[in-house]
Amino acid sequence: MNPFEADIIRVTDPLSQHTRGVRKSLLIASVIAIAVAKTGFIPTKISALGLEFSQADRGSMLWLIGAVVAFFLLSFVVSAFGDFMAWRMSQMAKAWDEDSIGYENLRKSILDDKKLTDEEREALQEQERRGGAMWRNAGHLDNHMLVQKLVGPISWARISVEFVLPAIAGVAGLVFLIRTVP
């Protein structure tokens, strides 16, 4: 059993391709909404399409941008929540597997111990001690401890970047637009 498998799951990408696409759209729409709200730049005319906007049309455009941001925000929150739950469940499933394997190994060793002679038990214990010492002396224990220390902060950083910041950008875009609407 690889001691890093559970940690690998904790720091891998928790978002599906769909959620990444929605997040990207949310961030783009939020930047546009904030730019429109802060600069007041709303086109009065789109020559290529032959469109001209009155002041009332410009207010409607703000509501339209707000609706787009709201849709992307809702879509992101729902998709991200599903991805987050799947990501957490994969972590829990790995922990369950590791516990189950440990239990099965313990059970098997107890049953096998009944068939072993004292000399065989001593040889087995000596082999286990040597294996543990080799693992520690090769630096694997130090590497494992370092990874254990880093996994938590990396997980929280990913949660912040993947889930929290896009949601904050979406909310900010909506707030700026709502404050700007005449």
What distinguishing features does this structure have?
mainly alpha; two-stranded antiparallel ribbon; 82% helix; rod-shaped
Question: Can you describe what's shown?
Answer:
The protein is an all-alpha fold. It has one domain. 82% of the residues lie in helices and 2% in strands. The protein has five helices and two strands; from the N terminus they run ααββααα. The chain has a two-stranded antiparallel sheet with strand order 1-2. A hairpin with a 4-residue loop joins β1 and β2. α3 runs antiparallel to α5. The termini are far apart. The mean pLDDT is 77.
Tertiary shape: rod-shaped
> Describe the biggest sheet?
2 strands, antiparallel
User: What proportion of the residues form beta strands (DSSP E)?
Assistant: under 5%
The end-to-end distance, rounded to whole angstroms, is: 63 Å
- Give the number of helices: 5
Percent range of helical residues: over 70%
Mean pLDDT: 77
Number of strands: 2
Strand order of the largest sheet: 1-2
Q: What is the number of independent domains?
A: 1
- Evaluate the radius of gyration: 28 Å
- Series of secondary-structure elements, N-terminal to C-terminal: HHEEHHH
Structural class given helices, strands, pairing?
mainly alpha
The parts where pLDDT drops under 50 for at least 5 residues are none
